[in-house]
Design brief:
The chain is of the alpha+beta class. The protein has three domains: about 100 residues, Integrase, DNA-binding domain (Double Stranded RNA Binding Domain); about 110 residues; about 160 residues, Intergrase catalytic core (hpI Integrase, Chain A). It has 15 helices and eleven strands.
């Protein structure tokens, strides 16, 4: 029941859920409630020029529903829709009104307020440092871990993130040699470097220097953190990075890259599956679960992370759709399923049973990753399924509105969520039919 009027009686009557469920107020667009294992929390969420922002108001056991709605309506939503992050502003601490208590609860520290005002805007791109972007990533990643996997796993992730921060130069203290990648000009390593200064040449030079002076293992760990940083930077429009600078494998032969890495392409490169029939034949050689997951990804345009986190409770095979409580860019979105995908999921259900996750791993939890498909020198990553779906949709003349609605990218005026309409379902069926024609009607 994702859309309902959020009242105090409704909130108090809701049971806690093993997974995070989102409820959207029918009277105030952008006023939401999340319900997890231990808490119920109010949020305000909206878009401005394609940028989605969600601000936590407070827990339901502390804040009344009418107070939270008033704060969302009168303070937070107007600011968000003007493009201002309310968490970067200070509110008067005087008094003990409901507004004052709630606003004190969501207020940022001085450093985070400065980050929200400077690091989240494209103005002054040269002033956005690696440290600024990493702080944004930490906030995004840890909040997502708490909401999706709970506090325990979020604490584990926090330790790992702190170690990655240390490699980039963001720790409080180091030994006599200083942070990795430190130089006379940049004694703090990469931490205070402008994000726009991270070029392919710098990456290649740093890799060679670290391998020689600190050892190959340190170089690998350093660039694992860099890879996380730059993947996040490219994905976020607030960061002045439009392509991945770590294209250090210029020859394309894998030489000089850290062990286990693959070549990274610039973001503006077309990442289609070069031979769709060969890809399909190679996928058919996999076991049933990764095979089904890759085919669903190809026929729907979903992100690999969304495919991996699909739960049976969120799949409606009769209606031909699957929904997510929170994704990379939205707080709620529905994805249309074609008849091919529905048949694939029904077959999977009959063969492997119905667990919590649609695509389960060896231990019964969710499948952790999708495989890269290989054929000779060809390498096709799971992300290319999403690129292929979008390219086929463009070739068929599908409108940008329909295409972006299916893949869950930012659109103005959608109040931060996407729902399946009859037109969208018809469009997804059309694209899936064309893909199946190109693989010569191979069985799902």
């Amino acid at each position: 029941m994702p859309h309902t009027k959020i009242t105090q009686a409704f909130v108090e009557g809701l049971p806690f859920h093993d997974s995070t469920d989102w409820y959207h107020d029918t009277e105030l667009a952008g006023f939401n409630l999340s319900v997890g294992r231990r808490s119920k929390t109010y949020y305000a969420a909206a878009e401005n020029d394609g940028r989605f922002m969600r601000v936590k108001i407070g827990r339901a056991d502390v804040t009344k529903a009418n107070e939270a709605r008033a704060v969302a309506r009168d303070i937070l939503l107007p600011e968000i829709r003007r493009g201002v992050d309310p968490r970067s502003k200070y509110f008067d601490d005087a008094g003990d009104t409901a507004y004052a208590r709630i606003m004190r609860g969501i207020r940022m520290s001085d450093d985070k307020a400065d980050l929200a005002l400077r690091g989240r805007r494209k103005k002054g791109a040269d002033n956005v440092t690696v440290g600024h972007v990493w702080a944004m990533y930490e906030e995004h990643h840890l909040a997502r871990m708490i909401e999706e996997r709970g506090p325990e796993k979020a604490n584990r992730a926090k330790k790992h993130v702190a170690e990655q921060r240390r490699y980039l130069g963001g720790a409080e203290s180091y030994g006599k040699d200083g942070p990795p990648a430190s130089t006379m000009e940049w004694p703090d390593g990469w931490w205070n470097r402008p994000i726009t200064s991270i070029t392919p040449e710098l990456c290649s030079q740093t890799w060679r220097n670290l391998s020689r002076t600190r050892g190959r293992r340190t170089a690998q760990l350093f660039f694992m953190a860099v890879k996380v940083l730059l993947n996040y930077a490219v994905a976020k429009e607030e960061v002045p990075v439009t392509s991945h600078p770590m294209v250090i494998d210029i020859a394309g032969d894998g030489r000089g890259l850290p062990k286990g890495w693959q070549s990274l392409r610039a973001q503006n490169a077309v990442e289609r599956i070069s031979d769709i029939r060969a890809w399909w034949r190679q996928v058919d050689k996999l076991t049933v679960i990764p095979k089904s997951a890759l085919k669903v990804a190809l026929l729907t345009g979903m992100r690999p992370s969304e495919v991996l986190t699909m739960r049976w409770e969120n799949v409606d095979l009769d209606a031909g759709k699957v929904w997510f409580g929170m994704t990379k860019t939205t707080d709620y979105r529905e994805v249309a399923l074609s008849s091919w995908s529905v048949a694939q999921l029904k077959r999977l259900q009959s063969m492997s049973g119905r667990h919590e996750y649609v695509f389960t791993g060896p231990t019964g939890g969710r499948l952790q990753s999708l495989p890269t498909i290989k054929r000779g020198a060809d390498r096709w990553t799971p992300k290319q399924c999403r690129k292929e779906w979008q390219t086929v949709a463009v070739e068929l003349g599908v409108s940008d509105t329909q295409r972006l609605s299916q893949v869950g990218k930012g659109l103005g005026g959608t109040d931060g969520h996407y729902v399946v309409t009859p037109d969208l379902r018809s469009t997804v069926q059309q694209v899936a039919d064309e893909i199946m024609r190109r693989v010569e009607g191979a069985a799902t």
